[in-house]
């Protein structure tokens, strides 16, 4: 609490490492949360969450993982790619991660940017009964739709993390009590800091998972 | 997990309620996390975290709270205002919330937008030994410096929430074990999803609070 930091540009500002990989519409670092649409056998676009792993340099290749036999896995394998999009609408993240959503057009109305990618499977590992596949995503075409001043809302972050916790509720490797405790915390943050979109998004988490019924222990 | 949602624009997109309050450079909803600089008696600008409470309509007034006898409280009272800024550099949030930082210029190099505000105290309540004051913030002058496609990084959200938990470690009303457990979770998220800026920011939380020494219970 008493740490004094000298004035200076080193304390902040755009990281020099943070440049967009070649052909991508945005800079990536660590894991960037995106939404991907992939064309299914019914010729509709399936909407799912996809974490993008940044390459080490701007010439490197972006990767992503699929966990088990999901629609994204199937459509990547059968169609060879999809459309990755960047949005900050919390409802879109919840629908993508926790519900089955199919649309007629590959680019969602809330996307601030999108990039069509070819997906090539590069490795697979097994964890329990689940095959985790790693895909290289190579950009084909990209567009920036809207730019804005980004703002920080803790309710938004709570919704995103809550979708992760909620999607693990029935995975044996995770402790349900711990996940429910975490969901309670995120619900409280949304209540205190979220806007209308975050409240609506969290209500969809409640609806899709019924986690509140597990309150008070198993 | 089986909730099917019909295709449609109602599922997402910019919320109609989300417009910038008159004179503000960005739209606000719920509580938006900002950084404020206020001029101290030494004629340097103190950098602190400030949660902005959105008004009910675009004609309403933005409010913020100060907790106890902080530098922001003192400088708001003595100087009548400060400069609110919007940034997504996680290091800036940590420095603002957990360290004493003073700079020569009111606008930080990492600010994407700023607004000079007049601060008027409108109410006060007492919680334990702490006087919580509510201030109305009225915009004087504002500038948008940089716009971009916002991206979502769970590590960033974890840093912001961790600064909140870390700042409560020595507040008697909060359970230390619970805060430390939460910090462990955030540290893990930063490790797995953060970029270089998030890792650096989290190292500053470690350094400023020494919370890891409390691991394993009190």
From TrEMBL, chains A, B:
Name of the protein in question: DUF447 family protein
A Pfam family of this chain: DUF447_C
Domain DUF447: start-end pairs: 32-145, 153-206
UniProt-annotated stretches for the region Disordered: 1-23
């Amino acid at each position: 609490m008493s740490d004094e930091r000298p004035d200076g540009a080193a304390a902040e500002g755009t990281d020099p490492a943070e440049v967009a990989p070649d052909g991508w519409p945005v800079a990536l670092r660590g894991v960037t949360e995106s939404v991907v649409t992939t064309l299914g056998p019914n010729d509709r676009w399936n909407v799912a969450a996809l974490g993008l792993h940044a390459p080490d340099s701007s010439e490197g290749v972006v990767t992503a993982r699929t966990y088990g036999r999901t629609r994204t896995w199937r459509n990547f394998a059968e169609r060879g790619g999809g459309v990755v999009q960047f949005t900050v609408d919390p409802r879109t993240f919840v629908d993508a991660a926790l519900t089955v959503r199919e649309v007629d057009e590959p680019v969602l109305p809330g996307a601030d940017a999108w990039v069509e990618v070819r997906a090539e499977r590069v490795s697979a590992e097994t964890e329990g009964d689940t095959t985790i596949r790693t895909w290289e995503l190579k950009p084909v075409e990209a567009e920036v739709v809207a730019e804005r001043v980004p703002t920080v809302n803790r309710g938004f972050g709570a919704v995103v993390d809550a979708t992760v916790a909620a999607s693990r509720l029935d995975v044996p490797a995770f402790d349900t009590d711990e996940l429910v405790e975490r969901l309670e915390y995120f619900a409280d943050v949304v209540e205190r800091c979220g806007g209308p979109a975050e409240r609506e998004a969290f209500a969809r988490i409640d609806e899709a998972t019924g986690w509140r019924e597990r309150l008070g222990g198993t």
